Structure formats: C-alpha cells, structure tokens
C-alpha cells in the first residue's frame, strides 16, 4: 500500500486514530488481565488503552503469547478485565455478570473463527439461523437468507458443511455473524485454515462489509491479511507496541 502513514504514538498516549467524528464503539481504559495458574500470576494484558470507532477496520497483530486472544475474549464479552474499564457502545461492561455478558455478546458481537465452528449435520441456512434466538421466527429465516445472499452463498443454503469448501464454510460463518446485525465483527485468524487465494476471497468479503459500514476487528499474524485493514494494533507482552492508521 502506498499511502500508509505511520502515526507517532507517545508511550502513554491513548491509542486512537485521528478523530473521524465517528462514535466510539469500543473503549478500553487501562485494561489489565491476570491469570492465576497455581501460585503463578500471568500478566496477559498490562494496561491497554484504546478506542475503536464505528466503521473502523482493524487488525490486531503480535507474536504468540502477546495477548491477542485475551484481548479478543474481552472485546467479545467472553471474559472481563481484571482491572480497568471496557465500554462497549458507551456502556460499561467491565464488571457485569456472566449472564448479562452473554446477552450483550449475543446482541452486539458477531464472531468468526479460524475453524468455522459450523454445526456439521445442519444446513448452511440453519447454521446461520439458529443463533438468532432473540428474533421472531419468520424474521429469523429472512435474516438468514439475507445474510447468505450478502456473502454470495444463497445457492448453497441447503448444503451441509461437509458439502462445502473451506472458503464456503467461512462464508457461512460470516453470514451467521452478519445475521445478528452485530455492532462489531470479531474474527480470530479467519483465513488461518484457508489457502492464500481463498483467504483473499474471504478478505474481499470483509473489505465489502467495511465499505458498507460494518466495524470489523481481525486477529491475524499475516501481513497480507492485515494489509486489508485500515489500522493495525500490534501487541507485545500485553501492551500496545504500535498503533498505526493508514492515511486516507
Ligand atoms: P496470543 O493470543 O497473542 O497468543 P494469549 O492472549 O493467548 O496470547 O496469551 C497471553 C498470555 O496469557 C500467554 O502467556 C498465555 O500463556 C497466557 N494465558 C492465556 N490464556 C490463559 C489462561 N486461560 N490461563 C492462564 N494463562 C493464560
Ligand atoms: Mg491466540
């Protein structure tokens, strides 16, 4: 990419790109996460402060063990910080109960995983439809059809996962995330199980969703994947080592 502009970042500055006027979706303020294993304390996140706004397209990078999954679990309301604040859509979700967290998660977060996580004996359509527990049944079917259409897979709606290629399975998984109309799509190594050509096809779907206004966060260790994103946040030993937004 030619116009990639690096934004200098002071050691203690909040890691946010220039104010675009878009509303913050995610605000992490001095977030720490400590795991206890036996008598040992593992400091997986050690003071992460950053803001992600509507329609941002973000790659989270970093070596193995740098805290990416820990951060994604917190962003996705699968876990809460040990210390610090996480505001999602303006609401503090740092200290809420597990059941409240599950409800926030199902309304606001769409997950896409490396291993697709589709139900094997269930059609593509049903895979997309089943998680829409809060929607009325007819609307549910229509939303699933709309989502499969958006990823170009309506013609495979009645196929089972074992009748689909890896790329098609991931498209079903993206449709499942989209059907919830989530505030954020969180993808953990979404192209990790795909060959590079298929990976590019999946990234072009994320590119399209970004153009349509979706907020997208992708964990990846591949530069070719991160290159699609508009901003790269690099973790090292549980802190933000680098936060770089592309120039317009
Ligand atoms: P990454 O996804 O970047 O590889 P992780 O967030 O998985 O990094 O891990 C960050 C650190 O926290 C590592 O040292 C890891 O061993 C540790 N860790 C992650 N999850 C747990 C857990 N559930 N219990 C104990 N330690 C953990
Ligand atoms: Mg990980």
Explain what you see:
By secondary structure, the protein is of the alpha/beta class. It has a single domain (4-15, 54-80, 98-245), classed as Rossmann fold (3-Layer(aba) Sandwich). Helices cover 29% and strands 28% of the residues. It has helices at 68-75, 98-108, 124-129, 137-150, 166-179, 196-211, 223-226, and strands at residues 24-37, 40-53, 57-61, 83-88, 91-92, 109-113, 184-188, 215-219, 231-236, 239-245. The strands form two sheets. A six-stranded mixed β-sheet has the order 6-7-8-3-9-10, sandwiched between helices. A four-stranded antiparallel β-sheet has the order 2-1-4-5, with helices on one face. A hairpin with a 2-residue loop joins strand 4 and strand 5 (91-92). The longest helix is centred in the last third of the chain and has 16 residues, at 196-211. Magnesium ion (MG) is lined by residues 68-69. Adenosine-5'-diphosphate binds at residues 35, 37, 42, 44, 62, 64-70.
What's the helix and strand layout?
Layout: E1 24-37, E2 40-53, E3 57-61, H1 68-75, E4 83-88, E5 91-92, H2 98-108, E6 109-113, H3 124-129, H4 137-150, H5 166-179, E7 184-188, H6 196-211, E8 215-219, H7 223-226, E9 231-236, E10 239-245
Parallel strand pairs: 3-8, 3-9, 6-7, 7-8
Antiparallel strand pairs: 1-2, 1-4, 4-5, 9-10
The structure holds adenosine-5'-diphosphate and magnesium ion.
């Amino acid at each position: 990419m030619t116009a990639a502009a690096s934004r200098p970042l002071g050691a203690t500055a909040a890691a946010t790109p220039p104010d675009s006027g878009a509303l913050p979706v995610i605000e992490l303020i001095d977030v720490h996460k400590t795991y206890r294993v036996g008598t040992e304390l593992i400091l997986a996140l050690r003071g992460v402060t950053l803001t992600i706004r509507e329609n941002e397209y973000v790659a989270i990078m970093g070596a193995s063990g740098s805290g990416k999954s820990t951060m994604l679990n917190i962003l996705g309301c699968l876990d809460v910080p040990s210390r610090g604040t996480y505001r999602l859509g303006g609401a503090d979700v740092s200290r809420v109960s597990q059941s409240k967290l599950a409800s926030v998660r199902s309304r606001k977060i769409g997950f896409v995983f490396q291993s697709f996580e589709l139900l094997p004996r269930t059609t593509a359509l049903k895979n997309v439809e089943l998680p829409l527990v809060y929607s009325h049944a007819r609307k549910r079917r229509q939303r699933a059809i709309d989502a499969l259409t958006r990823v170009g897979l309506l013609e495979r709606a009645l196929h089972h996962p074992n009748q689909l290629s890896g790329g098609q399975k991931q498209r079903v998984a993206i449709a499942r995330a989209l059907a919830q109309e989530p505030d954020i799509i969180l993808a953990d190594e979404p192209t990790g199980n795909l060959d590079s050509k298929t990976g590019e096809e999946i990234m072009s779907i994320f590119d399209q969703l970004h153009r349509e206004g979706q907020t997208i966060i992708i964990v990846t260790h591949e530069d070719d994947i991160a290159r699609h994103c508009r901003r790269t946040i690099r973790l090292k030993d549980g802190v933000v080592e680098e936060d770089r937004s592309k120039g317009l």
